Amino acid sequence: MKRLPLPLLLALFTAIPPLAIDMYLPAMALMANDLATDIHKVELSVSAFLIGFAVGQIAGGPLSDRIGRRPVILFGIALFSLTSVFLINVQDLDQLLLLRVLQAIGGGMASVNSAAIVRDRYQGKDVAKTLSLVAMIMMLAPLIAPLLGSLVVRFGQWRDIFTLLSAYAFVVLMILSWQLEESHPPEKRQKSSPWGNYLSIIRHPVARYYVLALAFAFTTMFVFITASSYLYLDHFGQSSDAFPWLFGANVVVMMTMNRLNMILLRRFSSPQLLFAGILLQLGATLALTLLFASGQPSLATTVTLIAFSVGSIGLVAANAISLVLHYFHHISGSATALIGVSEFCLGALFGYLWSLLHNHTPLPMMLMMAVSACLALLCVLLARRVQHSDKVA
């Protein structure tokens, strides 16, 4: 039988993290009640997942450089599916947090290798174009995940969400076992220390700034994801049925930006499109911060600006990853892992800081988003400055 297109195969397992994060957002209030805790403590499970995902990436990237992409991906998905089974019967907050970390480690080990496989197979602008195509397909996951979660809450129990996650991961595992070919042959595998690989990336005068720029741009999105239940369900008083549609606006804009990125790459370079995406994100987050500092913007205004802030990732991610991987062909797994670790660690940190600053208004959330967007722009400007200096020299 004919093999499935590579972007579709990559999207199948890259979709696992957004499914695992977004599907249970509408159920957080019910989870808090069932586990006899506060919703803000349940929201910490998002940060717990981000930490576990970072651990999985930092392990899975270098490991795939050594033994190949395929075995690491299959092991990670198997771990995710098994841990999801245990999450069905979680009894308290501590168990939830611990199991979410373990679940995320499996997801991180698998997902980190998506961009590495693209770098194994493609060169130049084709890397950014393929990553954008993978992202467009994968974006169906965060688009339907909150809706699925809302349907589960309506017709079943919140625990059924983890049943669906386990089943999905198992099906993906079976498909990849049959369809996914190894893209990193033995003769290209690296035997050097992963820490040495990480240091070479961190020390690179340009790549390190692109890594940080992408990490801070994603952090802006993660702050929103962590606080989205509070913002829409609590502050604006929306129902769990309305939540998927409010959340889905971000995904629609992101998918549009991914498609736009593929078209614009015909005329513009990846650094130019990355800069434009960061500026879009910063403008939207600063507008949100000013509006909430001066009064109470409408729900429609808030949803629109957040959609552009989060959706700008469609212009940022593929171009930033492509720019980093351009310098590290033979250790693309390690490079992708460092990108992921930076994204998810900073996302978890800023999400935790939001929980400390939370004063039952959206302003701290908007401030955290604006700070991370400003830092993303600063990193892009530093990268451009180094590149300009090298050209002059």
From TrEMBL:
The chain crosses the membrane at residues 44-60, 72-91, 97-118, 130-155, 161-180, 209-230, 242-261, 273-293, 305-328, 335-357, 363-383. It is found in: Cell inner membrane; Cell membrane. It is a multi-pass membrane protein. Residues 6-388 form the Major facilitator superfamily (MFS) profile domain. The keyword Transferase does not apply. It holds the Pfam family MFS_1. Gene3D superfamilies: Multidrug resistance protein D. Its main location: membrane. Keywords: Cell inner membrane, Cell membrane, Membrane, Transmembrane, Transmembrane helix, Transport. Belongs to the major facilitator superfamily. Bcr/CmlA family. This is Bcr/CflA family efflux transporter. It comes from Bacterioplanoides pacificum.
